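[Meeting: bench + compute handoff]

Bench side (C.D.) handed over the final construct sequence. Compute side (W.E.) agreed to return the predicted structure before the next meeting so the bench team could plan truncations. Sequence as handed over:
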Amino acid sequence: LKKNYSGDFNNVLAGAVYCSINLGFEEIYIMGAEHSWSKDIRVNEDNQVCTISRHFYEEEESLTPWLKSNTQPYKMYEILRDLSRTFKGYTILSKYASLMGCRVYNVTPDSFIDAFKKVTI
């Protein structure tokens, strides 16, 4: 891992934490990473997996189909598989940080990330 090849991480936050560990930071604080997508997953009448869209400037919520980067719709198993990879990546990073003498803290209220110690600042 130390050669800056991040392995199976599939998001920007994981890459940033990984690089920060390798840069020698002894403490890393994660802010604004709720990762609570799963609470907003729905399947609409057309059997499309959707997410609830909320905007601060609109009162109504809407369902938006969850699309892959190639604009194809996700299936439920694909979303859950990819979310699993995301959270597994954080667990791997937590162990790697410990091995490298780094402490990673999550200061995001209501975050779904369980791999890093939660603290308040």
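W.E. noted at the follow-up: The first helix runs from residue 12 to 22. C.D. will use this when planning the next construct.
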